[in-house]
Amino acid sequence: MEKLNMYGLSHLFMTVFLHNLSTFMVQPAITDVTMAALCPGQDECSIAIYLTGFQQAMIGMGTLVMMPILGDLSDKYGRKAILTLPMTLMIIPLGILAYSRTKTFFYVYYVFKIIINMICDGCVPCLALAYVADNVPEGRRSSAFGVLSGIGSSAFVCGTVAARFLSAAQTFQVSTFVAVLGAVYMQIFLRDSVADENQLYTPIISQGKPPIAKINGKSKANMPLLKALSSLRDITSFLNSSKIITQASIVAFFSNLADVGLHGSMMYYLKARFHFDKNHFADLMIISGIAGTVSQLFLMPIFAPTLGEARLLSIGLFFHCVHMFIYSIAWSSWVPYAAAMFSILFVFSQPCIRSIVSKQVDPREQGRAQGCISGICSIAHIVSPLAFSPLTALFLSEKAPFNFPGFSIMCIGIASMVSFVQSMMLRVVPSILS
């Protein structure tokens, strides 16, 4: 396949930008919408924390099964064909809250959000990474992954700025429109991508015999759509394929365990501790997003080739730990804003993990590999709410065993520290093609 430069991936970048813009635009508002529907007029709401945790766990269970399957299918049928599913379905829950945010409609949104995200959550970034791996030479892949992540961060900034100046109703309406625009843009402009254009991929509706693909060096006939490989077996096989992949998977698990825990707890913590609202959350996200965007678009392409993904991963995870520990002991409302600046360094971690994994597998297994890593991350989406949501609810209530509202954030930081220690063992990352 002819490899592309960064400009050749412009339609993919725009597709990812529009998808992330739609997704991130509603994040500053969703905490207020949730609490207004469930606990109107209150700054502390245990049921909202538990429902958020349950939602994360259910989504994690779904994506644990679906991500390896969708990644594997994208290797067979093309990235664009599989991307159509999440780009279309994820419009539905946004449209529900765009119409109304009453308690009844919130529960309807909640149910649809769980069902659809069990199938689609994380699918767009996972397949976008596989698309980049298809089209970018290995030597420039870590930088390309960083740019892709930077595009996501820039969408995060733009979406958060928009949410800062829009009402809750307008936020969800604009988000729905952008989601529709993203799906239409992808269908019109994005060309499909497979690992090898000399071997035509099988159309998803084809009744003919699919071609033979290699999995872990052995020839294996592609299965029909309804007989995709078992996800858990795929993940187990993937974990055992090499020591480096095993180590990278452990890093990915604990890193995402911390990320999911922080995402599910931080806003409720800040609301209870400092009475933050939608605008405060938006300001905080803008600071973090701008720092992360600058880092991924400009610093990572410089540091990745010189330091290597493994060292850059360790640097990112170290500052991820520091960032969480500072949040946990925040003594004033300005401290979270200062801690958000650490995103200029900790955003390196996710692109580095994905790049390390990408270089360990055959070019025609990129979708499967990224899907398996996403599946491993989904296990963290199951475990993290079960571990941290009750802890957060307990220490933000009057029944806390001792006065430390940020104790759950401190525990989340310890999970991040485990990933940092494991990342220190990743020193040499040989390529499968070398």
Automatic annotation (TrEMBL):
Membrane-protein topology: Multi-pass membrane protein
Signal peptide: none
Keyword hit for Transmembrane: yes
Originating species: Medicago truncatula (Barrel medic)
Keyword annotations: Membrane, Transmembrane, Transmembrane helix, Transport
Domain of life, source organism: Eukaryota
Protein's recorded name: MFS transporter
Domain Major facilitator superfamily (MFS) profile: 8-434
Membrane-spanning residues: 46-70, 82-100, 106-132, 144-166, 172-190, 250-269, 281-300, 312-331, 337-357, 369-396, 402-421
CDD domains noted in UniProt: MFS_SLC46_TetA_like (cd17330)
One of the record's GO cellular component terms: membrane
Main location (coarse class): membrane
